[in-house]
Structures are given as C-alpha cells and as structure tokens.
Design brief:
- Helices cover 37% and strands 12% of the residues.
- It has 402 residues and is of the alpha/beta class.
- The strands form two sheets. The chain has a seven-stranded mixed β-sheet, sandwiched between helices. A three-stranded antiparallel β-sheet has the order 1-10-8, with no helix packed on it.
- Helix 1 links the parallel strand 2 (18-21) and strand 3 (45-48).
- Helix 1 (32-40) crosses helix 11 (296-321), helix 2 (64-78) packs across helix 3 (95-108) and helix 5 crosses helix 6 (168-175).
- The chain is globular, with a radius of gyration of 21 Å.
- The model is unreliable at 1-11, 265-278 and 324-402 (pLDDT under 50).
Length: 402
C-alpha cells in the first residue's frame, strides 16, 4: 500500500544535474519551460543567468571565453556535492550552444567528462559564417530578436509583428551593412516611438546585451576544437534549411561533426538518436520552428529527449570505458527519509534514491529564478548566486513511497 507524505523540495543532491544555458539574451527565463519540464521528470537542473543582469556587475563587457568561465565556475561549484568522476551534462539553446562549446573546451582541458545537448544551434563555424553581410535570413533573425526585446519591454504591442515595422526594402538595405551596424539600424528603428524613459531603459539594456553577444560571435577566434564525450544536436528543419545556404557539411547535425573532426567525420553513418558509443556526434530532428521551442508543449518533448540522451550517453560511456563506479567513487549518501525503493533508471551515483511525484506542479524559486513581472519575463530579473547558477526547486508535493 502506498504511503503519502509531504516534502518541501525535491532537489536530490545525489542526482547528476543538467545545466541549461539560454540564448543570445542570456536570461534564464528564456529556458524556463525547459527547466519546468525537466522538473516534471524529477530531474535536478541548474540554469545560468548572464552576470550583466546583476545590478552589481561592473566588470568590462565579457567575451565568449569570459562568459564561459562564469558558467564553468558555476558548474564546478554545483558539482562539489557530487562524487569525483560525475559528468557535466550541459544543454544550450541557440546562442547557448555557442557558449556550450567554449564551456566544453574549458572543462575538457581539465579532463572532465562532458556531454552536450545542443538545442537547434549549428556549429560555431557555421554560426560565424551565417552572420555575415548580405544574408537576408540572418538579418531577419537579428530583427526578430530585437523585435522580441521591444515586445517584452513594452515598446510595441504584443500583437504587432515584424511586417508592421520593417518592409522588404528596409531589410534588403540593412542586410548590406556589417552585423554591428545592422543591429544599430534595427534598434534605431524602434526609437521613433513616444515611449516613457523607463521603458526605453529596459529596451536599451536588453538590446545592448544582444549587440554585445553578437559582437563576441564576430570577434571569437576558434583556438581549440576539443570534442565532448558525447553530443546530440537537436535541430529543426527550419534552422537546417537556413544554414544550408552557407554550405553546411554534415548538415543533419548542424555541422558539429565537421567542426570537431573535419571532413573525415563525413564518412561516418549518422543515425538519428544514435547512442554515443556508436558516434560521438549524433543528431535528431525537432518539430516546430526555432522560436517555438521554448514554449511549453515543445519544451516537454525536448526535456524528455534530453534526459534520455544523457542517460544513454553516460551509460554507454561507462560501459565503453569499463568504469566501475563502485570502485572509483568512495562516497555514500544518506537515503532520503521518505523513500524506500531505488530507481535504477535515474542518473544517480551509488546510494542515490528517487522520489516519485504523485501530484503538484513545479515552479521556479521565489527568489532565484522567477521574474518579478510575469508579463515581461525578461525584465527586472533578480540577481543570481555568485556562481551565476541557481538550483531549481519544487513546491511542496505529495510523494508515493513504495
């Protein structure tokens, strides 16, 4: 007979967490539905918030490597409670995948085990090649990001679409400029409206982060191409078609295999969803368009696939490397007081146990990852922890003990 009980949080310190890195805006609210969907799967998860959202941040504008160092610092801090040998499980959405690659370089240089799930983002090389002058599709992507900033800031109405602001002639002219000047022209287009200074301040701040991050992409020099221990590129058909225009190689995976291994990788046969013991870089296809993916219904599908991939990748890696966790990990954990059955399907270190959720829904923490203005989730985000990573917790929920 099942016994019901109350527990204040379900953040299992014995479970290997997933680290989420958001898109070009750098705000963890962008990946909110991903983390909520992972919570629904009883998955421990951390998200990352760009340090520029912290009002106390006064350092120079960070480049790609400096942003990656912030993330690595947070990952190391979070994994201190894990036994030695625990893998780093990282998922990056859009520009977050660009950052994820640099995080991989830093972690692999220290011989860490790293698995990466890239959400609809082509390789670093493909991204740099895509964002160039005279690429209408790239210009439209830049406009879409700034247009979103205008919406969440209150500069324009939610219902207003891009066609009301830019016509084809505008886009063609803007696309001829450098990426830096394209963003300046796009942002300037919104300043013709009579808007209160407070709203302009929000819009300017968000657009400044986007501009600085795009400048970092342009300036980024690829010095190392150390592959992770396993990578799954989850791509939409929309993104693959756009990036095919810049002659992607191994295009099903967004060019990641070619980026890490060169043309020799193209001789391998790629199978959607293949395990990491077959190939290091794998791919799968996502439904919807790029901007749809953070929405709840798509995020649920992605979260399930993400967990399955990390489970399979880690298990395949252990089997391939003949790792005996009972020998190399010399740490035991206390069993949670309200549980009696081990769940072997979860990524737990020896001694880790699972709690089974009967009812209730996850919510972001009241002080670390929720916005004070739900209608404008990218505005007034509170400062995160010094490590820029914050654990996601649950509301009190009923659990079933078998």
């Amino acid at each position: 007979m099942a016994i019901s009980g109350e527990i204040k949080k379900i953040y299992n310190p014995n479970q290997i967490p997933i680290f989420l890195i958001p898109d070009i805006r750098g705000n963890a609210e962008v990946v909110r539905n991903f983390k909520h969907s992972l919570q629904d799967l009883d998955q421990s998860v951390y998200d990352w918030n760009d340090p520029r959202y912290d009002s106390k941040f006064d350092a120079p504008v960070p480049d790609i490597t400096e942003l990656a160092n912030y993330i690595v610092k947070g990952i190391k801090s979070a994994l201190k409670s894990m036994p030695e040998g625990a893998p780093c499980l990282i998922a990056g959405y859009s520009f977050g995948s660009f950052l994820t690659n640099e995080v991989i370089q830093l972690l692999k240089s220290e011989n860490k085990t790293v698995f990466a799930y890239m959400i609809d983002s082509p390789s670093v090389a493909a991204t740099k090649k895509y964002f160039q002058p005279n690429n209408i599709k790239a210009t439209k992507d830049l406009i879409a990001v700034i247009h979103h900033n205008a919406k969440v800031s209150g500069v324009i109405d939610e219902e207003k679409n891009l066609d009301n602001v830019f016509n084809d002639e505008d886009i063609a002219k803007i696309s001829q400029l450098s990426i830096e000047n394209q963003l300046k022209e796009i942002i300037q287009k919104y300043y013709s409206r009579k808007i209160p200074p407070s709203i302009w301040s929000k819009f300017t701040f968000l657009s400044q982060i986007v501009t600085q991050n795009h400048d970092s992409i342009v300036d980024y020099k690829v010095n190392h191409r150390i592959p992770p221990d396993g990578l799954l590129a989850a791509m939409t058909q929309e993104t693959l078609q756009k990036y095919n225009d810049v002659e992607l190689k191994s295009n099903h995976d967004g060019g990641w295999a070619n980026f890490y291994y060169g043309d020799s990788a193209l001789t391998q046969l790629y199978q959607p969803g293949a395990l990491c013991n077959k190939t290091i870089v794998n791919y799968t296809f996502l439904e919807g368009n790029h901007s749809d993916l953070p929405k709840s219904n798509f995020a649920k599908q992605i979260a399930k696939q993400m967990v399955d991939f990390f489970d399979n990748a880690w298990n395949s890696y252990k089997n391939d490397k003949h790792i005996n966790l009972d020998l190399i990990i010399k740490r035991s954990f206390e069993k949670p007081t309200l549980t009696t059955q081990r769940n072997p399907s979860k990524r737990h270190m020896p001694g880790g146990y699972s709690l089974f959720i009967e009812s209730g829904s996850p919510s972001s923490p009241s002080s670390t990852s929720s916005s004070s203005n739900p209608s404008s989730p990218l505005i007034e985000s509170p400062p995160y922890s010094p490590e820029c990573l914050s654990p996601i917790k649950h509301k009190p929920q009923k659990i079933i003990l078998n």
